[in-house]
Design a protein that fits this description.
- The protein is an alpha+beta fold.
- It contains 32 helices and 17 strands.
- The strands form 3 sheets. Strands 10, 11, 12, 13, 14, 15, 16 and 17 form an 8-stranded mixed β-sheet that branches. Strands 3-2-1-8-7-4-5 form a 7-stranded antiparallel β-sheet, with helices on both faces.
- Helix 7 runs antiparallel to helix 8.
- The longest helix is centred in the C-terminal third of the chain and has 42 residues.
- It is flat and about 100 Å long.
Amino acid sequence: MGRWSNERLLELPRCEDRSTHKAQLILEELRSIAYLARPELFPLIVAKQIELTLTRGLAPTAPIAISSYGVLLAVLGDYAGSQRFGEVALALTERAEFRDARPQTQFQIIHFIRHWRHPLHEGLPELLESFHTALDNDDVEYAGFLAAVLIYHSFWAGRPLAEIDALAQVIIPEIRSQPVPSMLCRSTQQYCLNLMGRTDDPFLLAGESGYDERDVLPIARRENDVVALSAAAITKLGLHFWLGDVAGGIPHADELRRYMDGMRGTSKMQLYHLVNALSRIEVAPGKRSTARATSRAIALHRKWAALAPANYAAPYELLRGVSARANGDLVRAERHLDRCIALADEHQLPLIGGLGHEEAGALYAQTGRLSLSRVMVREAHEKWLGLGLAARVEKLETAHPWLGTQDLVRSGARTVDPIAMHRLTQTLFGAPTVEAMAEALLGTVAQTIGAAHVVLFTGQGERLVPRAVRFAGRVVMVDGESAAVRYDASIVQAAARTGSLMIAAPDGASREFSGGGNAQALVAIAVPVRMRGQTIGAVYAEHDWPGQAYGPEHEDALVAICAQAGAALWNLELESQLMRAGEERRSLVDAQSRFIPREILGILDIADISRVQRGHRVERRMTVLIADIRGYTALLEGMSVTEASELAMGFLGAVELPIITCNGLLQDVRGDEILAVFDGEPDDAVRAGLAMLRSLREHNRERVARGSEELRIGIGVNTGEVGLGLVGGVNRLALTVIGDAVNLASRVESATKRYGSNLLISERTYADLVDRTQFDIRRMERVLVVNRSQPVTIYEVFDEDPEPLREAKRGAQAAFSSR
């Protein structure tokens, strides 16, 4: 292909041969399958696609074939060649006749080719645009693959995890019909959720995203889906790395080597080599396997950094720095880490920058430069906070307890440090909960004035109650008025009442602070937290020992701290109120759904039950199932109201789950009779009826064991047009299903008594069954049912009859069919 210039490729004639078009389509399908399951066949298929393109001309799939060749070159390490053929393929998609091939072509170029030359973060807008273009072209499959790359690249480019989660929540519903792309998207989304701390087991990739590795991986192994397996392994390796369990990630790195074909050419390959080498250096720096992995990673990153410095120069310097430090060459390590930090900032790679700062902090501590070490560690801490990487934040704060607080008044200073105050403000507003805000707020107060005992109060006006206490260097949340917390209530109430800082002097007097003056000997201080002219909290602090002198700058700092805390506390309390209101609303909706199922509201196109109006209805073709308890009146004789209620509840409990499981909606319950509707195929209603009979048998065993009589039911099923809607008067509405189809279902159910059958269906239902062979069905007869002028053919479904009776009915079918 080297002798084929870009111009020559673009000037190839169009292929008009339909057989070649079909051959290219078949090869395209095979190529996709080969990449997923048989990577060794991928080069052969791509070669055949290119051969047909060069000899027969440009078929509609030509851009995909040419970009596939670019992918192959990227996999083989010819990154310059891959860029060239990617550009040719993309140029072709600008032509109208190749527009349908654009989404798949863009996916291949962005996922395999572009990142070897262009910055990852600059490609995010293009990815999002390509995703929407693919959706507009109804190419949902490759919209899904583009979405998977977008979400993954967003993480590696350093987008905050909360933003990635929000992006995933918007994108994934658009591609839910595509199982593979949807799985890849949910995997990365769950990865981010784990790192944010939103899961019970941070090392288990399962949770609110809907992804569960316990379901996905067995299927992927059975089908040898190397893409799914490599995605899972790289994700697990990353989880252990970012969570600080680098030793736990090494087995996943070893496993990942078996699935390398599933990620060759992608940016995930770089992540594997980087994290694998860093993990091994930390766990076993002297091992030969570590030396091999590190040498390989450095060599590859050197090559990649020359091609795409914006993506790979900073990771290369990080590897060199960590390796040099492990080998004891601290001077060289410092030089490489300085470059890593500078390059990460220049190219907007906060993940690499955070790692560089962490490693530099450890290096400076090792060489006795503790002040520099603290600066580096705090910079890493702020990067993790900005990204929302809660697991890394917790790891650093555990290792360095002084993190999360700010000394607002530096030693020898007379004023508040504006940089420290700005950082505190960011921390307070970034706190996801009151607990996190209290940790930062009380820690800063303690550090600023040397207080040993600090209390946060919340409430309104003078009705303040303790919410959190800091003592012995740790913060504990407390339960309001019932908590046994030590504090001077008089100055807390005075601060809340006056809206000013109040102090308690050694002589026991309480007075308002007026600012200025000399250092004072203070026992305790109370500062109100205010918002919009209202007191919404207070901070109370006691010093390490009575009589300690503090200057007005410390009191100024406390006032400034509480001023910044006001808006943050207000927002968190408001969010808490909104969450409680949301929970109450969800509780009401859940309660409402037990009376009127959400599915029925969906059919009625009603999003909010409060907006329903009398007379609202829809008409559609549905299948109606009616079941009735035989001899119900006789069963009730001699029963108390409680016993009758237990009978009805037991019957409903036995038949409700089979209906729901078979996609039915239980619409009405009238003591001995239930009515259910099925919006899908009639087969669901028949399956539900059979499942109801099985469930009732189990229920009857329990009744007989208690000495009660067995329940017997008849079930009638009919399909037709029904009206589903709201009827009633001014003060009461009811949801009902009406129409001739409902009446006929009731008549069919009544006919079960005549024939001694458990389940009968109408001729309409029989005619609409998608697969009759799955049921034992026999034609009964054509009969006149009550209140109908035209005869109706009735069919019996006898799958749940005893086996001898079923055999007899099968044998007699010919006689029934001839009627």
